[in-house]
Amino acid sequence: MWHAAGYFDESDDNDRAYCVAGFLGHQHDCVHLHFAWEEKILKKFDIEYFKASELEWGTGQFAKFRDDPKNLFAPFSDREKALFREIKTASIDLILDFQIVGFGVVMMLPDYHRLNDELKRDGRILPAPYFMCSQLCMMEAGFIMWSLNSDSAPSQKGFVRPVFDSHEEYSGRAKQMFDDFADKNPWCSKSLLPPHYESDRDYLMLQAADNLAYEARRLLIVQEYDKHIPERKAMVRLKENVYRIYKLNYESMRAIVESQTPDNIPLTPEIANDIRLERYK
Questions:
Q1: Domain residues for 8?
Q2: pLDDT grade, residue 263 (50/70/90)?
Q3: What is the pLDDT of residues 15-61, one digit of tens each?
Q4: Which of 48, 82, 179, 253 sits 20 to 30 Å CA-CA off 75?
């Protein structure tokens, strides 16, 4: 018997898209990445934590690197651009050095509100974006483990523990909902342990998950709204370790509401790579 871990974080712009995404890998790889992240990202660049959105805008932990930390709205200088690019590149390099597989769910928020308004007329309501996205991530994690276990002896089967970034509003309710989730999704739950909620300051894999969640959300925003903008180099590289990214638009969310079955996710992934999952055992 062996254990895998899945680490997931969210990224939200409160307007166009909401994402939950992260990485799954053998617990040994996740532990080694934790310590490598501490050494090669946090200590090297003298930051307490890594958050992709703060790096993107030079705020939070990265404000001290600005030419004028009191003016965070100033355009980046060439020096700032070079440093922030170096930090971003180092984070992507490190993720790609380890045997972890990425996946996630990006919800188009205008479509969510449209469908939710329609369902309310029938006395129904959609779960909050967090729950829809996080539960689909748990389903995918469970199906990955189910696939890895399909040809394994009983004593060699693996289990995955989903770990999410601490969320005061949702964590308690999410834990309470797990039994109901497992009853409704028996196939993917066979190898799925109840979720944990931890701080990204203590579980540094969550900072890597934040990186993917941010890039996945930005990618689908570009595909949906800003088609003239080229794909970000960070996501082009991260795709090497991405297994599935699902897009929740109006049609796919309605499909989930009307035809969800316990043995699959009734969506065609927006991004799907032919990755040999066996290498993550």
A1: 2-25+101-280
A2: low
A3: 999 999 999 999 999 999 999 999 999 999 999 999 999 999 999 99
A4: 48
Would you call 276 helix, strand, or coil by DSSP? coil
Question: Of 200, 236, 212, 232, which is closest to residue 106 (Cα–Cα)?
Answer: 212
Contact 58, 84 (CB under 8 A): yes
Asked whether residue 95 is domain-assigned, the answer is no
Whole-angstrom distance, CA of residue 165 vs CA of residue 77: 33
Nearest to 133 by CA among 272, 12, 42, 4: 12
With respect to residue 47, please indicate whether it lies within any of the assigned structural domains. no
Please report, as a single letter, which amino acid is at residue 204.
L
Residue 267 resides in a domain: yes
- Who's near 23: CB < 8 A, 6+ residues apart? 6, 7, 30, 95, 100, 101, 102, 205, 208, 209, 212, 241
* Long-range pairs of 170-177 with CB within 8 A, sequence gap ≥ 24: 170/128, 170/130, 170/131, 170/134, 171/197, 174/131, 174/134, 177/131
CA–CA separation, 255 and 191 (whole Å): 25
Least confident range from 1-5, 70-74, 76-80, 89-93: namely: 1-5
pTM above 0.85, yes or no: yes
Contact 209, 165 (CB under 8 A): yes
CB burial of 39-55 (b: ≥16 within 10 Å; e: otherwise) equals eebbeebebebbbbbbb
- In sign, the C-alpha dihedral spanning 231, 233, 236, 239 is negative
Phi, psi of 53 (to 5 degrees): -65, -35
* Distances from the Cα of 58 to the Cα of 52, 70, 92, 209, angstroms: 10, 11, 18, 19
